[in-house]
Design a protein that fits this description.
about 500 residues; alpha/beta; UDP-N-acetylmuramoyl-L-alanine:D-glutamate ligase; Protein-Tyrosine Phosphatase, Chain A; 3 domains; 7-stranded mixed beta sheet; 25 strands
């Protein structure tokens, strides 16, 4: 266990006051969580400044404080160290004070606007299928050994991240697979982690409410690749033009691929039940559908090879990997109705909440639907987020879907009707456009009023099990609601032969 004096020598602050040579506890960001002998580090955030809570932390037992300016006076005795930028050293401290757990396993980091969750989940599933002890950190969940923990952030803060890796190391995890968001890179949450493999999926408009512009967004992604040393591998999707900016100056060994320019990577077959791919001579049959999933599968395949797995074992395991929940996930009716699913509408749920992601999933379903089939998309846009993408999402839905229903996503503190009006600015059609701000009603109506030739896509929330309204998260799962509606559709139209299907109690408002 490190002592306060040892930490002082490690940090070498600009100046310090007080002294403490005893053992130190945990690193804390929140003064409310401080316990006896802990280390409190004061961060300047967008909402609050941790320097305001130094005295509270010391009163609760912190014996070491790391800050950007020394307080005039603090109660009791504590070692206070001043550094130029607390955020820049936080990741390194978090790793050091948990015993540098990332060094005990091979680290994989995946960044990009879309595809991070699917790529990470595929790699995790392959590793587990092949008998390796792997951990997963991502948007949907964190997996440590046999434990599954629901995630609240794509990439946790530096302290929680280090603690999760510490727990993985404690159960002899060999590989840690993690999504690395642009926010995490900008906020330096992964500082102190040496990645063995890093991957770039793609880049499109997102998070411009946080990043100033697209150049800043790209620069944040680039940080992951400038962190790599010359022994690491970078797996890069060259079909995205931003890949060249992201890897500029990268010292790692670059493994890139392209389905557009590289004849060694080809889509051999595609349909609603999956893809068959030629990945540089390896034929992979995957249950994932949609052309964009060809990029995700190729990326996962190369990451696994970079980790030292054999081609034949990876090909076999990818053939059984189901990918991430809520990513173009086919909704199935409940058990009693499942035998009739072939005659029911095809219903999919997807997390697509950016223009690029929405266009990709719509084009993927349009490419595999049968002649004469109708594609109906139900979607909205998140409140308190980048408003500029809303009309663009409306335009893309208008272009690629036959029927569009606009509804709420996570409105947060915004008026759902106002968000819908923003989306409608990009829609030119006057027919086959419906508005229903109540998301539950919108999903039920779209499915119950569908016919056997309809494909329904419910987009925007995917795996999420809540809807956020005015600061509260209410229980809400698109997949559950859609499955219940699909089951009801079958019961009405198949189980009750001879009766006309009952009209949905939900009345959609057709936009004028």
């Amino acid at each position: 266990m490190m002592t306060g004096t040892e930490l002082l020598h490690m940090i070498q602050p600009q100046q310090h006051t007080g002294a403490y040579d005893g053992p130190i506890g945990r690193l804390r960001l929140d003064s409310r969580n401080v316990r006896k002998n802990d280390v409190f580090i004061a961060l300047r955030g967008t909402v609050s400044d941790g320097h305001r809570f130094i005295r509270d932390a010391v009163r609760k037992g912190a014996r070491v404080v790391i800050c950007e300016h020394l307080p005039d006076d603090i109660p009791g005795e504590a070692l206070c160290m001043q550094v130029p930028d607390t955020r820049s050293i936080l990741g390194y401290l978090a790793q050091a004070l948990t015993g540098s757990p990332a060094r005990a396993m091979k680290m994989v980091g995946v960044t990009g606007t879309n595809g991070k969750t699917t790529v990470c989940t595929l790699v995790y599933q392959v590793l587990r299928k092949l008998g390796y002890n792997a951990g997963l950190l991502g948007t949907v969940e964190t997996r440590i050994g046999d434990r599954v923990i629901e995630s609240r952030l794509t990439t946790p803060d530096a302290v929680n991240l280090a603690e999760s890796l510490e727990q993985m190391a404690a159960v002899d995890t060999a590989f840690a697979i993690m999504e690395v968001s642009s926010h995490a890179l900008e906020q330096q949450r992964v500082n102190g982690i040496r990645f063995d493999v890093a991957a770039f999926t793609n880049l499109s408009q997102d998070h411009l409410d946080y990043h100033r512009d697209m150049d800043s967004y790209i620069d944040s992604k680039k940080r992951l690749f400038t962190m790599l040393n010359d022994r690491a591998v970078a797996v890069i999707n060259r079909d995205d033009p931003a890949s060249y900016q992201v890897t500029d100056g990268c010292r790692a060994d670059i493994w890139d691929f392209s389905f557009k320019e590289d004849r060694d990577f080809r889509i051999l077959d595609e349909g609603p039940d999956g893809l068959v791919l030629d990945l540089d001579g390896a034929i992979v049959s995957t249950p994932l559908t949609g052309r964009y999933n060809a990029w995700n599968v190729a990326q996962a395949y190369l990451i696994c090879l970079a980790l030292g797995l054999t081609k034949s074992s990876v090909v076999a395991a990818l053939g059984e990997a189901q990918g991430a929940p809520g990513r173009l996930e086919r909704v199935m009716p409940h058990a009693d109705a499942a035998i009739h699913q072939a005659s029911a509408p095809k219903v999919f749920v997807d997390y697509a909440h950016t223009p690029d992601a929405l266009e990709n999933v719509l084009k993927a379903l349009a490419a595999v639907r049968g002649e004469g089939d109708t594609l109906h998309v139900v979607f909205g846009a998140g409140g308190d987020r980048d408003q500029s993408k809303r009309p663009e999402m409306g335009r893309l839905a208008d272009k690629h879907a036959d029927v569009v229903t606009l509804t709420s996503d996570n409105p947060r503190t915004e008026d759902p009707e106002a968000i819908i009006r923003d989306i409608r600015m990009g829609v030119t059609r006057s027919d086959k456009l419906f508005v229903e701000a109540d998301r539950r009603k919108a999903i039920r109506s779209a499915i119950l009023e569908a016919d056997t030739r309809t494909m329904v896509l419910v987009a925007g929330k995917g795996h999420e099990r809540y809807q956020e309204v005015h600061g509260r998260r209410h229980k809400f799962d698109d997949r559950e609601i859609a499955a219940k509606a699909l089951t009801e559709w079958i019961e009405r139209r198949v189980h009750k032969k001879g009766r006309r299907p009952a009209k949905s109690s939900t009345k959609k408002k057709e936009a004028n």
